[in-house]
Amino acid sequence: MRLGRAKPTVSAPMTLPERGETVTLSTLAGGRIPARVLERTSDSVLVAVTVPTRPWTPAQLKDMIMECSNARGRLRLRGTFAVEDPADPDVLRLLSPRSIELLQQRHHVRIEAARPVIVYGARGGAQAESFTVDLSGGGFLLAGPESLSLGEEVRFRLTLTPGMVPVTGTARVVRTTDEGRSALAFESISDLDRRRLVRFIFECQRDERHRGIKGRS
């Protein structure tokens, strides 16, 4: 009897985050803490937590996971986390990182669209009224305010059509531009709201194509 060959296990490619890149530290209790890479070597990553936190417990460090983005998607890394300096507990080093999962990145169609949006601090901070520069199914580019910082999580209310229920959820600042604009990626959004947003983008594209056809006729 001939036995079939077992398929080899394909592990996720590991590309460690670069210096200055924003990453997320996940704990077993479900917490998600933004951090920034201070240093990267061949076998370790040094990060600084960018929000106030309590001192880490051994259990939290043992079960911590680092999440970062690469060209293929969202990469999750595990290893040995340690406080770099007891006098500065917000600086952690991940030793011997290894890839445990690659979450494939979805490619979202992006359109230029100015739509009113209100952002709030995730913990009840002051609100700011602004508008989008562009939109996609994964987030939007916000014209302002410049007070938003990299890695900050906010709540938002995005109005697609006047008089209709706004799209709501939470998002995180993943990039800032030289013009002071903030790129926000959705952290949580309902399936219904995401479908409404994707449908709105599709309708905008369809209208744009129709205008282009009429302009050439």
Describe the structure.
The chain is mainly beta. It has 2 domains: 22-104; 110-216, Thrombin, subunit H, CATH 2.40.10.220. The protein is built from 2 helices and 13 strands, in the order βββαββββββββββα. A 6-stranded antiparallel barrel has the order 1-2-3-6-5-4. A 6-stranded antiparallel β-barrel has the order 8-9-10-13-12-11. A hairpin with a 2-residue loop joins β9 (127-136) and β10.
Backbone shape:
elongated
| Average pLDDT number | 81
Main sheet overview: 6 strands, antiparallel, barrel
Total number of β-strand segments?
Answer: 13
> What gyration radius follows from the Cα positions, in whole Å?
21 Å
SSE-based structural type: mainly beta
SSE pattern: EEEHEEEEEEEEEEH
According to CATH, the homologous superfamily of the largest domain is: predicted glycosyltransferase like domains
CATH topology of the largest domain: Thrombin, subunit H
Strand order of the largest sheet: 1-2-3-6-5-4
